[in-house]
Amino acid sequence: MSWQSFPKIELHLHHEGAAPPDFIRRLAQEKSVNLSGVFAEDGSYAFRDFAHFLQVYEAATGVLKTPDDYARLTATVLERAAEHGVIYCESFLSPDFCGGRDLGAWREYLHAIQEAAAHAEAQTGVTLRGIVTCIRHFGPDKARETAICAAETAGDWIVGFGMGGDETRGRQGDFAWAFDCAREAGLKLTTHAGEFGGPDAVRQALDDLRVDRIGHGVRAIEDPALVDRLAGSGTVLEVCPRSNLALRLYPDMRAHPVERLRAAGVRVTVNTDDPPFFRTTMTREYEALERAFGWDEEVFTQIARTALEAAFCDDATRERLAKRLEAGLKAAT
Ligand code: MCF
Ligand code: ZN
């Protein structure tokens, strides 16, 4: 089975992290920015471990400076998504990088991104929505400012609030004010937890931030009572299998817990996180999961439906996409 044209929904994608190395190199050249240490000899992104990944990520994506840079990136992101059968995608965007948490500047970036997304949707048929994301290692004060930008721009395009970054610092609960602010503005919530933070971070995300979904969440597997809790509550995990392998959380796909979580009744979805950084695409994720666990059309159909149910978009958009998804599934199976 070729999975490339199988219809897919992606819920965990960092907007800047989806920038191909060539895109970043071209921008760096245009702006005369020196990016030594970012690329390997073969031209791909190079990093040793999680801490180094975060550094390389911020150096590489730091060349994205203007609203127009983000408009160009948005077109590229949606073209790539379309190539891999994605019909709906939510991406993490941050006022921390777009305008330094200044609300006026953030609105300008957002305007450019939304305009580019609308244009690209007309060309590719991929629908994009944004999740405003605070950066954990920038600390709770900056997260508060980011949440205010999120609350002020919440609507039918900015549909969620989240947190990424270095999970080994502080506790999820340190960011409760930011998440409460976003929730009060009507935004749905997700946070990176249970990747490098272990199962306790997942519990904190549920108890202290009261999130709707969990980014990664895979290390819940280390705590059977937590697995039961996730299965019981129906909390959706945004699993990014090849990201976890690239950052050496697991030695290979067969050791990855996504199948054990699914078998225990946890609602899992499949995502790419930062595709060019992890040398992945949605198609490669599907191929690797088929190879490791024998996942077939039935499993991937279930996963796409789960992802659409857990999407943060409004119900009218969900219903429109559900029709497209079901038609695509029928054609593919
Ligand atoms: O999911 C991966 C690895 N785990 C944690 N954080 C990140 C990942 N990819 C990007 N991030 C972080 C990173 O700090 O999210 C931020 C980056 O600066 C971007 S979110 C707009
Ligand atoms: Zn992520």
Give start-end ranges of low-pLDDT stretches: none
What characteristic shape results from the CA principal axes?
globular
CATH class bucket: Alpha Beta
Order of helices and strands: EHHHEHEHEHEHEHEHHEHHH
Mean pLDDT: 97
Bound molecules: ligand MCF, zinc ion
The total of beta strands comes to 8
Oligomer: single chain
Give me a quick take on this structure:
The chain is of the alpha/beta class and 333 residues long. The chain has a single domain, classed as Metal-dependent hydrolases (TIM Barrel), CATH 3.20.20.
Task: Explain what you see.
This protein has 13 helices and 8 strands. The protein is of the alpha/beta class. It has a single domain (8-20, 69-332), classed as TIM Barrel, CATH 3.20.20.140. It has an 8-stranded parallel beta sheet, with helices on both faces. α3 packs parallel to α4 and α5 runs parallel beside α6 (176-184). It is globular, with a radius of gyration of 18 Å. Bound molecules: ligand MCF and zinc ion. Zinc ion is lined by residues 12, 14, 164, 192, 215, 273. GO terms for molecular function: deaminase activity; hydrolase activity, acting on carbon-nitrogen (but not peptide) bonds, in cyclic amidines; metal ion binding. Residues 7-326 form the Adenosine deaminase domain. Its cofactor is Zn(2+). InterPro entries: A_deaminase_dom, Ado/ade_deaminase, Metal_Hydrolase. This is Adenosine deaminase.
